[in-house]
Design goal:
Elements: E1 3-12, E2 18-26, E3 29-36, E4 44-47, H1 56-66, E5 70-73, E6 76-79, H2 82-106
Antiparallel strand pairs: 1-2, 2-3, 3-4, 5-6
Helix pairs in contact: 1-2
């Protein structure tokens, strides 16, 4: 299962947090949305089935997938939960955007 964020919109938050809205994709298909208000709380995940109802099973599957990925801090390695994994995915999107801006400002393509 490949979880991706697309259509990411980031908003400034007065205390320096990161607020965002994004579309959630699994294996290339849009399954819902996620957002975070940037106030220190967890990201909210809205995943729907084909009839527009909340899909708890798919969220559980996403949690399981997230736990297969890890993060490290102070020499320790931890498994992600869905919220922290979404945070990592958001960081990847923001890093890609920063690289594109830097390339554009330096006149390089790619």
């Amino acid at each position: 299962m490949e979880i991706r964020l697309k259509n990411v919109k980031v908003y400034e938050v007065p205390d320096g947090g990161v607020a965002f809205d994004a579309s959630l994709y699994i294996d290339g298909a849009r399954v819902g949305d996620t957002r975070n208000r940037g106030d220190g709380g967890a990201s909210v995940v809205y995943v729907r089935d084909g009839e527009g109802r909340y899909n708890a099973r798919l969220v559980a599957d996403m949690e399981t997938e997230a736990a297969t990925h890890t993060w490290s801090y102070a020499g320790e390695t931890y498994k992600h939960n869905l919220d922290s994994y979404i945070g990592d995915l958001l960081d990847e999107v923001l890093q890609e955007r920063a690289i594109k801006r830097k390339r554009k400002s330096s006149g390089r393509k790619g």
